[in-house]
Amino acid sequence: MDIILILCAVTAVVIIIAGISIYNGIIGGHNRVQRAWSDVLVYERQKSKVLDQLQKVLADFMVFETSLLEKITGLRSAVHALPAGADGNALGKVELASKELMGGLRVAFEAYPDLKASEAANNMMREIAEQQENVGAAITIYNRNVELFNNSIEMFPGSVVNGLFNQKAPVIPFSDIEASQGFSYTPNF
Protein backbone atom coordinates (compact mmCIF):
# COMPACT_ATOMS: atom_id res chain seq x y z
CA MET A 1 0.00 0.00 0.00
CA ASP A 2 2.79 2.41 0.83
CA ILE A 3 4.38 2.02 -2.61
CA ILE A 4 1.13 2.87 -4.37
CA LEU A 5 0.65 5.89 -2.13
CA ILE A 6 4.22 7.02 -2.77
CA LEU A 7 3.79 6.55 -6.55
CA CYS A 8 0.55 8.54 -6.49
CA ALA A 9 2.21 11.33 -4.49
CA VAL A 10 5.23 11.43 -6.85
CA THR A 11 2.93 11.45 -9.88
CA ALA A 12 0.86 14.27 -8.37
CA VAL A 13 4.00 16.28 -7.61
CA VAL A 14 5.32 15.76 -11.16
CA ILE A 15 1.96 16.82 -12.65
CA ILE A 16 1.85 19.92 -10.42
CA ILE A 17 5.43 20.88 -11.30
CA ALA A 18 4.75 20.34 -15.01
CA GLY A 19 1.56 22.42 -14.77
CA ILE A 20 3.37 25.24 -13.00
CA SER A 21 6.17 25.12 -15.56
CA ILE A 22 3.70 25.28 -18.47
CA TYR A 23 1.74 28.05 -16.76
CA ASN A 24 4.90 30.10 -16.23
CA GLY A 25 5.98 29.42 -19.82
CA ILE A 26 2.71 30.83 -21.12
CA ILE A 27 3.04 33.93 -18.93
CA GLY A 28 6.66 34.37 -20.04
CA GLY A 29 5.66 33.98 -23.70
CA HIS A 30 2.91 36.56 -23.32
CA ASN A 31 5.34 38.97 -21.69
CA ARG A 32 7.87 38.44 -24.51
CA VAL A 33 5.17 39.27 -27.07
CA GLN A 34 4.27 42.44 -25.20
CA ARG A 35 7.94 43.45 -24.91
CA ALA A 36 8.51 42.79 -28.62
CA TRP A 37 5.44 44.91 -29.43
CA SER A 38 6.83 47.66 -27.20
CA ASP A 39 10.08 47.53 -29.18
CA VAL A 40 8.13 48.00 -32.41
CA LEU A 41 6.37 51.01 -30.87
CA VAL A 42 9.69 52.49 -29.67
CA TYR A 43 11.23 52.30 -33.15
CA GLU A 44 8.10 53.71 -34.75
CA ARG A 45 8.09 56.61 -32.29
CA GLN A 46 11.81 57.24 -32.82
CA LYS A 47 11.06 57.44 -36.52
CA SER A 48 8.28 59.87 -35.71
CA LYS A 49 10.73 62.15 -33.87
CA VAL A 50 12.98 62.26 -36.93
CA LEU A 51 9.92 62.97 -39.05
CA ASP A 52 9.19 65.98 -36.82
CA GLN A 53 12.65 67.35 -37.58
CA LEU A 54 12.31 66.56 -41.27
CA GLN A 55 8.99 68.36 -41.34
CA LYS A 56 10.72 71.53 -40.16
CA VAL A 57 13.34 71.20 -42.90
CA LEU A 58 10.67 70.57 -45.51
CA ALA A 59 8.64 73.57 -44.36
CA ASP A 60 10.71 75.72 -46.74
CA PHE A 61 9.40 73.61 -49.58
CA MET A 62 5.81 73.60 -48.32
CA VAL A 63 4.43 75.33 -51.37
CA PHE A 64 5.77 72.56 -53.57
CA GLU A 65 5.37 69.62 -51.27
CA THR A 66 2.12 70.03 -49.36
CA SER A 67 1.14 66.44 -50.02
CA LEU A 68 4.48 65.21 -48.71
CA LEU A 69 3.99 67.11 -45.48
CA GLU A 70 0.48 65.66 -45.19
CA LYS A 71 1.96 62.15 -45.51
CA ILE A 72 4.45 62.92 -42.75
CA THR A 73 1.64 64.17 -40.53
CA GLY A 74 -0.47 61.13 -41.39
CA LEU A 75 2.37 58.76 -40.56
CA ARG A 76 3.03 60.50 -37.25
CA SER A 77 -0.67 60.23 -36.39
CA ALA A 78 -0.73 56.56 -37.33
CA VAL A 79 2.33 55.87 -35.16
CA HIS A 80 0.78 57.65 -32.18
CA ALA A 81 -2.46 55.70 -32.70
CA LEU A 82 -0.75 52.31 -32.33
CA PRO A 83 -2.26 50.45 -29.39
CA ALA A 84 -0.19 49.66 -26.30
CA GLY A 85 -1.24 46.01 -26.55
CA ALA A 86 0.22 43.75 -29.22
CA ASP A 87 -1.78 43.97 -32.44
CA GLY A 88 -0.19 43.07 -35.77
CA ASN A 89 -3.17 44.38 -37.74
CA ALA A 90 -2.77 47.91 -36.36
CA LEU A 91 0.79 48.07 -37.64
CA GLY A 92 -0.34 47.60 -41.25
CA LYS A 93 -1.53 51.21 -41.58
CA VAL A 94 1.77 52.55 -40.26
CA GLU A 95 3.84 50.42 -42.61
CA LEU A 96 1.71 51.45 -45.61
CA ALA A 97 2.06 55.13 -44.65
CA SER A 98 5.84 54.64 -44.26
CA LYS A 99 6.13 53.19 -47.76
CA GLU A 100 4.11 56.06 -49.25
CA LEU A 101 6.20 58.62 -47.39
CA MET A 102 9.50 57.09 -48.50
CA GLY A 103 8.32 57.17 -52.12
CA GLY A 104 7.28 60.81 -51.78
CA LEU A 105 10.57 61.77 -50.18
CA ARG A 106 12.55 60.22 -53.02
CA VAL A 107 10.51 62.22 -55.53
CA ALA A 108 11.04 65.42 -53.54
CA PHE A 109 14.79 64.90 -53.34
CA GLU A 110 15.00 64.30 -57.08
CA ALA A 111 12.82 67.31 -57.88
CA TYR A 112 14.57 69.83 -55.66
CA PRO A 113 18.35 69.92 -55.87
CA ASP A 114 18.56 72.40 -52.97
CA LEU A 115 16.77 69.96 -50.73
CA LYS A 116 18.93 67.11 -51.99
CA ALA A 117 22.04 69.11 -51.15
CA SER A 118 20.86 69.87 -47.65
CA GLU A 119 23.08 67.89 -45.32
CA ALA A 120 20.47 67.98 -42.57
CA ALA A 121 17.79 66.56 -44.85
CA ASN A 122 20.13 63.83 -46.08
CA ASN A 123 21.05 62.88 -42.53
CA MET A 124 17.40 62.73 -41.56
CA MET A 125 16.62 60.56 -44.59
CA ARG A 126 19.35 58.15 -43.53
CA GLU A 127 17.99 58.17 -39.99
CA ILE A 128 14.45 57.47 -41.21
CA ALA A 129 15.74 54.60 -43.38
CA GLU A 130 17.68 53.21 -40.41
CA GLN A 131 14.65 53.49 -38.15
CA GLN A 132 12.55 51.72 -40.79
CA GLU A 133 15.10 48.89 -40.84
CA ASN A 134 14.90 48.75 -37.04
CA VAL A 135 11.11 48.54 -37.28
CA GLY A 136 11.44 45.66 -39.76
CA ALA A 137 13.79 43.80 -37.43
CA ALA A 138 11.52 44.46 -34.44
CA ILE A 139 8.51 43.17 -36.41
CA THR A 140 10.42 39.99 -37.22
CA ILE A 141 11.18 39.46 -33.51
CA TYR A 142 7.59 40.32 -32.60
CA ASN A 143 6.17 37.81 -35.10
CA ARG A 144 8.51 35.08 -33.85
CA ASN A 145 7.44 35.72 -30.25
CA VAL A 146 3.79 35.71 -31.33
CA GLU A 147 4.31 32.36 -33.03
CA LEU A 148 5.97 30.83 -29.96
CA PHE A 149 3.31 32.23 -27.63
CA ASN A 150 0.40 31.13 -29.80
CA ASN A 151 1.93 27.65 -30.08
CA SER A 152 2.31 27.47 -26.30
CA ILE A 153 -1.38 28.20 -25.69
CA GLU A 154 -2.77 26.20 -28.61
CA MET A 155 -0.75 22.97 -28.34
CA PHE A 156 -1.25 20.22 -25.79
CA PRO A 157 -0.63 20.31 -22.83
CA GLY A 158 -0.32 24.11 -22.88
CA SER A 159 -3.84 24.41 -24.26
CA VAL A 160 -5.20 22.57 -21.22
CA VAL A 161 -3.26 24.72 -18.73
CA ASN A 162 -4.21 27.90 -20.63
CA GLY A 163 -7.86 26.86 -20.75
CA LEU A 164 -7.97 26.12 -17.04
CA PHE A 165 -5.85 28.94 -15.62
CA ASN A 166 -4.47 31.65 -17.92
CA GLN A 167 -7.16 31.90 -20.58
CA LYS A 168 -4.89 34.00 -22.79
CA ALA A 169 -6.14 34.62 -26.33
CA PRO A 170 -3.90 34.10 -29.36
CA VAL A 171 -2.11 37.26 -30.50
CA ILE A 172 -2.39 38.47 -34.09
CA PRO A 173 0.97 38.62 -35.89
CA PHE A 174 1.87 41.42 -38.26
CA SER A 175 1.20 40.55 -41.89
CA ASP A 176 2.11 42.72 -44.88
CA ILE A 177 -0.72 42.02 -47.33
CA GLU A 178 0.72 44.35 -49.97
CA ALA A 179 4.09 42.62 -49.93
CA SER A 180 2.58 39.13 -50.03
CA GLN A 181 0.50 40.07 -53.09
CA GLY A 182 3.74 40.86 -54.93
CA PHE A 183 4.92 37.24 -54.67
CA SER A 184 3.88 34.70 -57.27
CA TYR A 185 4.95 31.82 -54.99
CA THR A 186 2.56 30.62 -52.34
CA PRO A 187 3.65 28.16 -49.67
CA ASN A 188 2.21 24.67 -49.74
CA PHE A 189 0.20 24.72 -46.51
Account of the 3D structure:
The protein has 189 residues and is mostly helical. It has a domain at 46-156. The protein has seven helices and no strands. It has helices at residues 2-58, 66-80, 88-111, 113-117, 119-154, 158-166, 177-181. Helix 1 (2-58) runs antiparallel to helix 2, helix 1 (2-58) packs antiparallel against helix 5 and helix 3 (88-111) runs antiparallel to helix 5 (119-154). The longest helix is centred in the N-terminal third of the chain and has 57 residues, at 2-58. 28% of the residues are buried.
Biggest sheet architecture: none
Shape: elongated
Percent helix, as a range, is over 70%
Element-level helix/strand string: HHHHHHH
**Stretches where pLDDT falls below 50 for ≥5 residues?**
none
Distance between the termini: 53 Å
Computed Rg: 24 Å
Percentage of β-strand residues: under 5%
Which whole number gives the mean pLDDT? 81
SS field, number of helical segments? 7
The SS-based structural class is: mainly alpha
> How many beta-strand elements?
0
